[in-house]
Amino acid sequence: KPSLDRKRHADGPLAKYKARLCCHGNQQQWGVNYYETYAPVVSWPVADVKTPIYLLPPTGVEINTNGEDSVLILRKNLYGLKDAGRTWWKHLSEGLERLGFKQCNSD
Fold first, then answer.
1. 7 or 49: which carries more pLDDT confidence?
2. What residue spans of the chain are helical by DSSP H?
3. How many CB atoms lie within 10 A of CB 37?
4. pTM, two decimal places
């Protein structure tokens, strides 16, 4: 579902428009759309999606499909997915390991 907002300068004039697309994680099914959700950190997820996630186009977005129904396929995790935090944690951990960092035993 899209979230639309207007950002203004401190003195009032319009600065920019912002849009965010959020997923309905409550419609995901364990073993189909996600497998694990535990993550030791939570942040804005930007990692690649590991399992296929399909979305209906948001209201107001028209996709030219010659009259056929269409869906969107996610390539990056979005806020609202059940495994978004874990996917981000895995992405961060793998990146830090490539830089030579090692996870301590207590983690």
1. 7
2. 84-98
3. 15
4. 0.48
